[in-house]
Amino acid sequence: MFRLGLIRSGLPNLEWKSASVRDLLAIVDYIAHDNPDAAQAIKDEIERKTSSLMENPQMYRRGRMSGTREMVVRPNYLVVYSENGNAVTILRVLQAAQSWP
User: Fold this and answer.
1) Which of 12, 64, 65, 66 is most buried, judging by how many CB atoms fall within 10 Å of its CB?
2) CB hemisphere CA count around 18 (13 angstroms)
3) What's the pLDDT at 98?
4) Count of CB atoms within 10 A of residue 70's CB?
5) DSSP letter assigned to residue 75
6) What is the per-residue pLDDT for 1?
7) Within the chain, where are the H helices?
8) Where does residue 5 fall: left (phi above 0), alpha (psi -120 to 50 degrees), or beta otherwise?
9) Burial class, 66, CB count within 10 angstroms (exposed 0-12 / middle 13-18 / buried 19+)
């Protein structure tokens, strides 16, 4: 599990499951073959939007799996996460066509 971002008093930590890190890196690598700038842009956007979850973890819709939520980053990219009072955990970063779990 990875923790990204600063730990701020009173706010949950942001944690990334290893599968979600692999998902993000695979997406970035795939896009980078054709367009490195676009790959960096989607990586930055996903990181920025997931960082905002620490302040408002219930901002996005309830997930298809119990106990999860889903953030649509762009129509083609979905971040699946769970949250409790201590942490927001990024579970997966998927292309919209992918199914999970």
Assistant:
1) 12
2) 1
3) 66
4) 18
5) T
6) 46
7) 18-32, 36-51
8) left
9) exposed
